[in-house]
Amino acid sequence: MSTFEANFDGLVGPTHNYGGLSRGNVASLAHDGAASNPKQAALQGLAKMKALAERGFRQGVLPPQERPDIAALRRLGFSGADSDVLRAAARSTPQLLPQVGSASCMWAANAATVSPSADTRDGRVHFTPANLNSKFHRSIEHPTTARILQAIFPAGRHFAHHTALPDCALFGDEGGANHTRLCAEYDAAGVELFVYGRAMSGNGPAPHRFPARQTREASEAVARLHGLASGRTVFALQNPTAIDAGVFHNDVIAVGNRNVLFFHAQAFHDKADVLAACARALCDTPLVAIEVPEATLSLQDAVASYLFNSQLLSRADGKMLLVVPEECRRNAKVASYLDGLLLSGGPIAEVLAFDLKQSMQNGGGPACLRLRVVLNDLEAAAVTPGVWLSETLYPRLTAWVERHYRDRLTEADLADPQLLLESRTALDELTRILGVGAVYPFQLA
Predict the structure, then answer these.
(1) Given 137, 226, 249, 404, which residue is catalytic?
(2) Is residue 249 annotated as a catalytic residue, yes or no?
(3) 3-state class of 207 per DSSP?
């Protein structure tokens, strides 16, 4: 029986917009108020999925969520018909519309933390949706995220689902964006590395410019829920200097696969201790640490190019493919570094760049768009089959995008009841394409 890592990418939603909602995310703030192109964004994401699936990597699709989120507005006191709710919010509190209209669930790395069956006490794949409570526009995602994950990975013999952690600052949880798994082989017990930015104890340095979103308490709670072995679990403090430079999640500054950890020198506080802990937990498997020094590549270049917000994937020949955004080829320092990396003879033997400009302008690269799920053959067979990207699903999804998505969207458009109807009509059709059932709370008239 084989075991592999599958990537489930978030399908960009019809209301993709640049609201500048994410303090600490440099790209998001820089493009605040710009007009977006939801159609192009969705097609760019699908093109990446298709290219990787054609190379033999298992690729799944996560559907977007209903936006604008009328239920969230009702919780805030707006009432009447859905169109009345939108209009009332636009009149009295227009700054809410980008929040409830954000398509941020496209960045599936934040959807949940996932532990494979080889690591868990009960031998099942465990999912905990991230509460994302540091940002309002993201904190409204987890109830629907839970329904989507349960529809795709049915609870029972192979999959276990947990509710999101309590919605409070103590348990701020950003999901897989601050979680990396290291292992010898995918089917072997691995090391789960949780990276956090702050802890209740208050010990250690803290960022000054931007907030630290992940807490140690949240990471420890997820590890307990998933039944992880303490000897194979590592908790690492993120470098506050990196957070202040725009590294709002660890996956903006580090990425791991199998026994390889590719990271910037400024990624971790007490870097030597973190690497030593990972090496010990890997036992007989050597840790291959590929560190990029500050003198070679500054934090600013790393954030601007999103070099580390890449996918590090194992090819069939055992070598690794690094999937990066096109911005890495446009940055002379990063491009030069990558050329040298390929010539070094190390585990990374290939670099593949994708145009993800629509996502990148909101601060999300290749790694942000995917949720990593390690599965064996039996577990993969239990996944709802309609979500696997295939030669037939890809053209159906591109045609669906062409039918339903706008090619220009501004903040003012979010108040348009017609956009809500368009979004709901699209999502209703998508549930039938993917075969995921009733994951949305709305009903079309």
Answers:
(1) 249
(2) yes
(3) coil
